[in-house]
Amino acid sequence: MQSVKALHIITIHCKFMTRSMCTHPRLCIEQQSLVVMKKLLAIAVSGITYLRGLFPEKAYGSKYKVMILREERSCPGASQIVQW
């Protein structure tokens, strides 16, 4: 249920964010799609690593009501995944 809410929040955010930046309708749709896919991938990877306990609690931040992996200096593995 949280992932559905997060997807809805991301979709609204992406529509608002790219609406003012787009000049060509097809390019706008492609940009929105790319942004949504990147964020969904980040949510998926973060969710898996969080539930499996791969990184310490401090390597995550709460965003979109979901635990999202963030770059943490004390946890080089988390930083490497975030940079990918």
UniProtKB/TrEMBL annotation:
Q: Does the keyword Nucleus apply?
A: yes
Q: Which Pfam families match?
A: HORMA (PF02301)
Q: Which SUPFAM superfamilies match?
A: The spindle assembly checkpoint protein mad2
Stated name of the protein:
HORMA domain-containing protein
Q: Which organism is it from?
A: Seriola lalandi dorsalis
A biological process from GO: meiotic cell cycle
One GO cellular component this record assigns the protein to is: nucleus
What keyword terms does UniProt attach to this protein?
Answer: Chromosome, Meiosis, Nucleus
Q: Which domain of life is it from?
A: Eukaryota
UniProt-annotated location(s): Chromosome; Nucleus
Residue ranges constituting the HORMA domain according to the UniProt record? 31-84
Q: Which PROSITE patterns match?
A: HORMA
